[in-house]
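Appendix C: a fully annotated inverse folding record. The material below is reproduced so that readers can follow the format used throughout the book. The structure is listed first as tokens, followed by the designed sequence.
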């Protein structure tokens, strides 16, 4: 394969990845907004029920992370920085492609747990997980 064709494929992969990440970030932001709207609506209509269910939703959100993706805890920013560092300086033990820190599984559990937390009234920002 010629060098120009290889570079073109690299650029295409980067742009396709950027589009996928951008669309995912927008969908995640909308999901969190919808969850917040539902929480506020439920809180105004059934405040005692929401107050009783909130701790259970917090436990569920925490349980999802602990059981299915322990690397999904926290904001996500330190995990991404560590994965970037692994990509810059790969060793026999770590490289960005084999780490669970930024895997699809970790991302899915982070989205699910933060949505459940928001439904329970948690003050979870979407900036870090995004």
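Designed amino acids, in order:
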């Amino acid at each position: 394969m010629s060098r120009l064709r290889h570079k073109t494929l690299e650029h295409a992969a980067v742009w396709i990845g950027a589009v996928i990440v951008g669309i995912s970030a927008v969908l995640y932001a909308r999901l969190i907004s919808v969850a917040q709207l539902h929480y506020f609506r439920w809180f105004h209509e059934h405040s005692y029920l929401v107050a009783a269910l909130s701790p259970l939703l917090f436990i569920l959100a925490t349980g999802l992370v602990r059981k299915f993706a322990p690397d999904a805890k926290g904001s996500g920013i330190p995990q991404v920085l560590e994965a970037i560092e692994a990509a810059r300086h790969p060793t026999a033990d770590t490289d960005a492609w084999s780490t669970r820190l930024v895997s699809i599984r970790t991302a899915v559990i982070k989205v699910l747990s933060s949505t459940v937390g928001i439904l329970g009234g948690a003050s979870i920002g979407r900036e870090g997980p995004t």
